[in-house]
Amino acid sequence: MALRPIILHPDPRLKKVCPPVEAVTDELRALADDMLETMYDAPGIGLAAPQIGQMLRLIVLDCVKDEDAEPRPIVMFNPEILSASEETGTYEEGCLSIPEQFAEVERPTEVTVTWLDRDGARQEEHFDGLWATCVQHEIDHLNGKLFIDYLGPMKRQMITRKMQKLKREKARA
């Protein structure tokens, strides 16, 4: 397993729709393992393949925050939301590609998702709370959408300018 560099916004790869995974291979399972290691190291609760420059429909997540609880890493190839609740909730979201920037985003409070697991088997699960928010946020990445796209233009531009400045500073370092 290896840590992968996380792409920072603004980057055109973060705005592209990713094609589906044709087949779950050993190479893709290794990529998923790298993504989990990168996500835990960051630390984050979700990571999408385009965030590490891999343009395919793959996300990883683990929303278990209690250090005494057993981690629950989930690898999803080709995740799709089958249904979403009419009820919405607001969470303060952040993103590993937009470090240290947070904003309130309104999303459905519950979703049912289907995906292919590490073995290529179809899975389906109902998520609520933080898990529902996280899986929607990560699936958005696969569709070229960032959490800041839910914000008003002023706030979105302010965050983008901060990120451009951060990228310039990192380039100089």
Can you put this structure into words, describing what you see?
The chain has 173 residues and is an alpha+beta fold. The protein has one domain: Peptide deformylase (Peptide Deformylase, Alpha-Beta Complex), CATH 3.90.45. It has three helices and seven strands. The protein has helices at residues 26-41, 129-142, 153-172, and strands at 46-48, 58-61, 74-84, 88-95, 98-108, 110-116, 122-128. The strands form two sheets. It has a five-stranded antiparallel β-sheet, with helices on both faces. A two-stranded antiparallel ribbon has the order 4-5. It starts with 25 loop residues before the first helix and ends with a helix. The model has no long low-confidence stretch (mean pLDDT 96).
Brief sketch in words of this structure:
The protein is an alpha+beta fold. It has helices at 26-41, 129-142, 153-172; strands at 46-48, 58-61, 74-84, 88-95, 98-108, 110-116, 122-128. The protein has a single domain, classed as Peptide Deformylase.
Structural class: alpha+beta
Shape: globular
Q: Specify the number of helices.
A: 3
Q: Mean of the pLDDT scores?
A: 96
Helix fraction? Answer: 25-40%
CATH class label:
Alpha Beta
Element string (H = helix, E = strand): HEEEEEEEHH
Looking at the overall shape, the CATH architecture is: Alpha-Beta Complex
Q: What's the count of strands?
A: 7
CATH superfamily: Peptide deformylase
- Which sheet architecture does the biggest sheet show? 5 strands, antiparallel
Low-confidence stretches are none
CA gyration radius, whole angstroms: 16 Å
Our measurement of the CA-to-CA distance between the termini, rounded to an integer number of angstroms, reads: 27 Å
Our count of domains comes out at 1
Strand order of the largest sheet: 1-2-3-6-7
User: According to CATH, what is the topology?
Assistant: Peptide Deformylase
Instruction: Give the strand content.
Output: 25-35%
